[in-house]
Structure formats: structure tokens, C-alpha cells
Amino acid sequence: MPAFEPVLLARVNKPNSAALEGYKADGGYETLKKALGMSPGEVTDLVKNSGLRGRGGAGFPTGLKWTFLPKDHPGPVYLAINADESEPGTFNNRILMEYDPHQLIEGIAIACYAIKSNRAYLYLRYEYGKSYRVLEKAIKECYEAGILGDVLGSGFKLDIVLHRGAGAYICGEETGLIESLEGKRAWPRIKPPFPAIEGLFRKPTIVNNVETLCCVTHIVNRGIDWFKSIGIPADPNNPRDPGSYGPKLYTVAGHVNNPGCWELPMGVTARELIDVHAGGVWKGRKAKAVVPGGISMGFLSADELDTKLDFAGPGKVGCLGLGTAAVIVVDDQTSMVDVVYNCCRFFSHESCGQCTPCREGTAWMTKILERIRAGHGRLEDLDLLMEVASSMGIIPGTTICGLSDGAAWPVKNALTKFRPEFEEYIKLGRKSVDPVHYAH
To answer: Hey, what domains does the chain have and what are their CATH numbers?
Structure first.
């Protein structure tokens, strides 16, 4: 089997990799020319048949999503790029935007051509100041070079609007993002109607992730067979599994010797990612728990590290899914009570407050864990935590968006896999002390 060849990160270590001149020297925007020689329907079919699934968390088939747009709609149709990378531990999109922005812009242009959109809104996380400056410069270069506006003189018109968010996790939810783009509070919308039917400014809208659109460029360039030669094929015994094809950017953070981002075939195991690529667990310790793709996905236990990190693997061991493929390692000297408390505190702060089960549930889970960490916990608190967590989210049907599912999952997961640790903590009356921050 030939060695894996990175494509998404192939240019990030080159000098001046963010410049248009360097991108074009490496064949940049030739794939866009190829796409413009095809019909929009042909480009859509190519992406659909490749099996590309969204890299933002949900893993929905990208080409299939594009086909949901109303046929022969008079327009306008919009593309919204979700660059609000706010899932804790995730930084793969940031690397793409800061070191190879033209790869993203080319993917945006191809996607817009396929869905017949003349305007794309690139919604960027506010905290990504460098990404904003790099993208702003890259977009300006494209207008000056005739790549945007009248795209390469083809008659296809495209404008990209770079929009900076205001630092809210909820804006990563596609309808929350759309509400924010419209200048409103980012309260997710009730669905249906879905954005492909009624989205931004009440017009048909496709929302795609940064890494997803970068993959589009390489699918059009290299073809379906190349893309499907990488990753994990569909399970013939599971009609709901369309496969996990293509390259994937995995980030590793937490208690490892060499945190970073790697492009690997979809389906690498958590153990290989940690031991081979991230240099193993730090200080000679062992892993107690591993987040497979952002804290909203839950935890792998030490016995589950051979789980394949594809769209199906984490779900087989009780996690919510692959998520953003942002792996966070927790060593065996760290209290899971403290880890879960930090998760709950984050989601309580980031809940938009629109749905009562999420607004109140995240707050009460945080308060219960505060009591446990203060040494006043009761064993029945664990059952209460599980009851609250099981009553919130799209899965039990009590909220509009999936934020509360993500807030509940690490709690349910930890109590299922690490309950003896929680019970011992309560029985011994242990207390957690937060670090003291001194002003200098």
C-alpha cells in the first residue's frame, strides 16, 4: 500500500504559503478552471458520489446537502462558511486559514459554482485575529487577480464577504450562525424549514465547514477513486453508515508530549494518534480518558483507545460521535470530577438560554458538581446528574439545537465509565482547589 500523501496540509510549511503567488506556483486555481469547464450539476454529482461528509461535527454527506436546494430557484442562493471554530481543543480550521487560505477560497469558489451561488459569507470566530488578517489579504489578492468578482473571466460572478463573529460557541450551530449573520442574537431556529430551503435572509443557504470545502478542491482535482481509496468504507451491514472516506485533520491537545495537528487517513485509532504522532502521554503517565473530537463528544476510557476515529467508531463505545476530531488526552493523575466540572461550566456559560432544559440543565449540573467539589456531595447527586443530563437535548426531544446534547454527553459518559471514581470522591469528602491567579 503506498504511503499516505497529505494534501490538506501539503503547503503549510512552505515559505510564504499564504500568498497567492506561491499558491498559483503549486497549481492553485487550476482546479477551479477545471470545475468551470463542467456543469454545476456535474460538480455536485462528483462531490456527492465521492462520499465526502461534513468535517464540522455532524458528518452529513456534503453533496447530498447541496441537492436539497430548491430546483430552479430564482435566487439568490447563499453559501455560508462555518469558520466559527469554538469547540474546545479544536484548531484544524485555524491552520488551514492561516497557512493556506487560497486552498479554502478555491474550495469556496467551486462550491458556489456548483450550487449556483454568487455570494459567500465566511463567518469567522472573533478570537481568530491572525486568521482574519490573512483571509482579508488573500481575498483582496483574489479580487485584484480576477479570481473573484468575474471568476477568471468566465462570466460566473462571485463575491466573498468576510464576517467576524462576536465570540459565542452557539454561532457554530448553522442556524445560530445565520441569525448572527443577519445581525440578530444567535438563537438557533426551529427546523424545518432547513437552511437549504430557507436560510440566510430567508433564502436557500448551504452551510459548510472550512475543512469540508478544502476537501472539495482535491476531490474535483483528483477524482472520486482517489478520495474513496482513503479512509473506512461503508459498513454493508449498516444501511445508515455511508462510510468515512478521505483525509482528515486530527488535532491532539492535553496531556501529551507533542500536541499538534496531523493529516491522516480517516479511521486512525486514538492509540496510534497519541503514541505515534503526539509522542505519548506526558511525564511517563498513562491516559485515563480521551476526548475523541471536542468535549461535547464524551470520553473514551483507557480500554477503548483502539477505537477508530471515523464517523462510526466513537459511537460504538458510547461517545456522541467523531465531532471535530479534536482529541484531548486526560492523564491518570487528573480527577474526572474536575474534568466534567470544567465541561459543565463551559456549556453553562455558552448556552444561548433560548431553551429551558438547556439553560437550566447546564446551570444545575454545574451547581451540583460545584457542591461535590466543595466536599458536600451526596451519592444521590450522581443519579440526579444523570437524570438532568438525560432530559435535555435533541435526542430526548426537548431543545431546538444540539448544544445541550453536547453538554449532557460528557456527563452521561463520565458517570457511565468512571462512576467508581465519582463515588470514591464523594465518600471520602474530597475537595478540589482551583488554581489561584495572582495579579502582578
So the answer is: 20-229 (3.40.50.11540), 244-331 (3.10.20.600), 336-427 (1.20.1440.230)
